[in-house]
Design a protein that fits this description.
This protein has nine helices and ten strands. By secondary structure, the protein is an alpha/beta fold. It has one domain: 3-Layer(aba) Sandwich (Rossmann fold), CATH 3.40.50.300. The strands form two sheets. Strands 6-7-8-3-9-10 form a six-stranded mixed sheet. It starts with a strand and ends in a 12-residue tail after the last helix.
């Protein structure tokens, strides 16, 4: 479904991604993990045109997209939705109005129909009793689930999640995990998840890609990553302060 081939990206001359190769199959839940600043969020932002590669190729469902003009990315973003770390709901709108917004803007639905659809989608993520609340009246976990409901309004084929469980208590984090897993299992949605949350990573991932020094250091199933004999991978998953990642520069 998605493939990155030899992707390079630098900021102010500092390399972040270096000859990165990564594939995600249709209907798969792929986690991208690694230390802070290694380029996880940078990687997924390329998939919706928020960043452009310095070199390399990005393919979506057999079509190369990295060189598309901005206007062409409008159609890509209908197929590939992104849930940002901060939820990014509009404070002046109720939860239902936030979720209805893409339906009104891109789906050309009338306000009443869009709100009815938004309420249905909020019910699917367990927020039926909070549709008329404003973001400030909701917990972090509710806002995250509301953002997921909004991302699903246009029925995307791929959803990108940037640190979806950061800042959540364990119960709400597992609720978000369950939503992501159900998207793949029940709807066939392809999910790419950037995360540091080891509980999420090993509970719901089909495969895990470990980024280090600009590229994919290891990629495999949760069992394969757990059993890796790579000391860098083991230092990360064990959370050890000392080890080869003490001097991670290029």
């Amino acid at each position: 479904m998605i493939e990155l081939r030899g992707v390079h990206k630098a900021f102010a001359g500092r390399p972040v991604l270096v000859d990165l190769d990564l594939r995600c199959d249709r209907g798969e839940v792929l986690f991208i993990i690694g230390t802070s600043g290694v380029g996880k969020s940078v990687t997924i932002k390329h998939l919706v045109g928020l960043l452009r590669v310095d070199a390399g190729e990005i393919w979506l469902d057999g079509r190369r997209i990295d060189a598309l003009p901005e206007r062409a990315f409008h159609a890509i973003r209908r197929r590939v939705a992104m849930v940002f770390q901060g939820a990014t709901l509009f404070d002046s709108m109720t939860l239902a109005e936030n979720v209805a917004l893409p339906l009104r803007k891109h789906g050309r639905m009338r306000a009443a129909a869009a709100l009815a659809d938004a309420r249905r989608r909020l019910d699917e993520v367990g927020l039926a009793d909070f549709v008329d609340r404003y973001p400030a009246e909701l917990s972090d976990g509710m806002r995250k689930r509301g953002a997921i409901a909004r991302a699903l309004t246009l029925d995307p084929e791929v959803v990108l999640f940037d640190e979806p469980t950061t800042g959540l208590d364990p119960i709400n984090a597992r609720r978000v995990d369950r939503l992501i897993r159900e998207l793949a299992d029940r709807r066939g949605v392809t999910a790419i998840v950037v995360s540091h949350d080891l509980a999420s990573i090993f509970a719901i991932a089909d495969r895990i890609a470990f980024l280090y020094q600009g590229g994919v250091r290891a990629c495999g199933t949760p069992a394969e990553i757990r059993g890796s004999d790579d000391p860098v991978v083991q230092q990360f998953i064990q959370g050890r302060a000392s080890g080869p990642m003490e001097t991670p520069g290029f």
